[in-house]
Amino acid sequence: MDTVINHALLHILPDAISLFEAAAEDFAQRAIQAVSKKQQFNVVLSGGETPQLFYDTLVKNSQTTKIPWQKIKFFFGDERYVAADDSASNYHSAYVHLFSKLPVLTENIYPMPTDLKDPSLAALQYEQTLRQVFNSELPIFDLVYLGLGADAHTASLMPNSEVVKNYIEVGTSKLVEALWVEKLQMYRLSLTPPALNNSQCVCFLVKGEDKAPAVKEVLRGSFDPSQFPAQLIRCAGGETIWYLDEKAARSLLRETNE
To answer: Residues with Cβ < 8 Å from 129, sequence gap 6 or more?
Structure first.
């Protein structure tokens, strides 16, 4: 089932397997078309458990051998401030489930640095990396993958965090921010809304009934981005797409049928 809500295209699939298969097919088509047109494809990966399942599906997809992997550059939307070989690292997860199984060039992988004593300096370093790679003050990504927390956070833009509040109140020219997440007792790095929104396509991958209330609030609720940070993410000049399984879309579907 496909529908449009608030200018976002929603693909609602029966289950998680169907969701990831559809997203993998979409990735393959976009990669092939982009490389054919401009010889490269710039992708931002998300963190958490959901991307692992997406990576596993992508590796096994029938289109995988047709994808020009050596022409794809990989970036990260956020990162936990842990060592690169830590099991909690988003980079480590991507390496284990994706990079190590495909002919991706090491020099085309841009992990967020987590080896500096000051996370703010790490954020600044990654921002400088982005500007150097794209030779621009504001990078233009071809495809940005994001997840959604049950609390409606995305990337590491957390509800009621100082980073989100400051952005809402005064905006920002920063591409990357460091923030302390009290409930997790750790620092995290995150791309900011300006960096994420300046993309050809933002793609949310969301599964599970525990995400259903957040999905409904982000897409149908009153605009309250301090409480629901994912509301800040919407492509300025491209597409915003959501891949949802029926469990994640349950509250939306219930509202539609009432």
So the answer is: 110
The sign of the torsion formed by the CA atoms of 131, 133, 138, 143 equals negative
Tens-digit pLDDT profile for residues 196-222: 999 999 999 999 999 999 999 999 999
Q: What is the pTM of this model?
A: 0.96
CA 214 to CA 125: how far, in whole Å? 32
Q: What is the pLDDT of residues 101-143, one digit of tens each?
A: 999 999 999 999 999 999 999 999 999 999 999 999 999 999 9
Q: Which residue has the tokens 């460091």?
A: 178
Terminal CA-CA length for the chain: 17
Helix (H) or strand (E) holding 43: strand 41-45
Q: How many CB atoms lie within 10 A of CB 104?
A: 18
Contacts of 177 (CB under 8 A, 6+ apart): 123, 163, 189, 190, 192
Instruction: Mark 207-232 as b/e (b = at least 16 C-beta within 10 Å).
Output: bbeebbbbbbbbbeeeeebeebbbbb
Cα–Cα distances in angstroms (integers) from residue 53 to residues 198, 207, 254, in the given order: 26, 11, 27
